[in-house]
Amino acid sequence: MAPGWLPSLFGGARLRDPAYRFLYEPGPADEAVAIDCETTGLDTRRDDIVSVAAVPIRGARILASQRFQTFVRPQAKLKPDAIKVHGLREADVAAARPIAEVLPDLLRFIGGRPLVGYYLDFDMAMLDRHVRRWLGIRLPNPRIEVSALYYERKYGDAPPGTQVDLSFAAMLADLKTPLLDQHDAYSDALMTAMAYVALSDLAARGIRIARQPSRGAPRFEIG
Q: Which of 85, 146, 172, 222 lies 20 to 30 Å (CA to CA) from residue 191?
């Protein structure tokens, strides 16, 4: 019995709507979906999603023309700090669909394909809260964290004491990936997809990212 089979079996047994059993069916082996959400704030229990975007990846191709992208009308109030980050105001999302109407389309779009993100746990926590309420499960899709892939390529062989910077800007600069408008769900998902393809290529060719003396405050040090 495959190690990942039992969790999928029990999760599928809890699924309230059998029409969504396709979430447990893996997509093509060379496909994944980069995903990003913008929110009313950073509290995964009380804040809401205001926009979500997903970009398919097939092998080394990013299928940007086939993207999923939508605003979402939140129940929670937009916090001033969040507005400063993504620029979305109450008026910008007032006419959008609520998350309960967006989720069916989003889930059919992503299917059972792996989800790729930058600090993906936050986005998944925001989505899973609604998916659990509706379907009784968390999203069963495999999850791929690009900051972990980046860490492995740049710092996986680093000696103790090496300063580590896993910021989005540092990763994109190392990968020579264009810096688009950050904190826009589609732009962030697209940049994440580009980073994932670049990191996958480096890993396949056994190439590491060169380390240079760190500038500015590091995120942490390797102990």
A: 222
